[in-house]
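Input.
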Amino acid sequence: MSSSRPIRIAPSLLAADFARLGEEVAAIEAAGADWLHLDIMDGHFVPNISFGPSVVKALRKHARMPFDVHLMIAPADPYLAAFADAGADLISLHPEAGPHLHRSLQTIRALGKKSGVVLNPATPVGVVAEVIDLVDLVLVMSVNPGFGGQSFIRTQLSKIATLRGMIEASGHEIALQVDGGVTAVTAKDCIAAGADVLVAGTAVFGTSDYAAAITGLRG
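Output.
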């Protein structure tokens, strides 16, 4: 089934040239990217270490598009204000990253930012039902978090479809995002299942034509 929802593309900074981050951010915005996805990794919750609030703040002046900050850190709560102050527009976290997901989402909202919940491949969708009044985005990880360039886990398509039904039933305006192994091929399956925001790393930054890559992902 095809989607009538607008499809937004959020290139993942993790796949960019780290020696040229400002230029890369400006380039994807010029190429038609809707959001910038920033993966924050702590070497504890996930295996790798990426960057922190200071990098987000430094990049903020290079783009007008929304900054979509995905926290793969634990605990997340002590850093919410720092990322909000750095220029995040949306802050997403994992239920496993702290003891009180509901409170964490309230905190993000109180900071004036949009809030998101991230589901790892083994995280059940029922978590979202308990906090659906407090989320602006649900992110389905279609790989295990912590590394770029992994293969798409196709069992997550049914999770996307289930979440689309939950979101429609809720009556709330909630984005449904997918991250991991998203290519021009898997993007079509994600959109058909109900996703409307696609995170893509190497599928954009690994090409010579960012605009063509972004257009191709929209389906």
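The chain has nine helices and eight strands.
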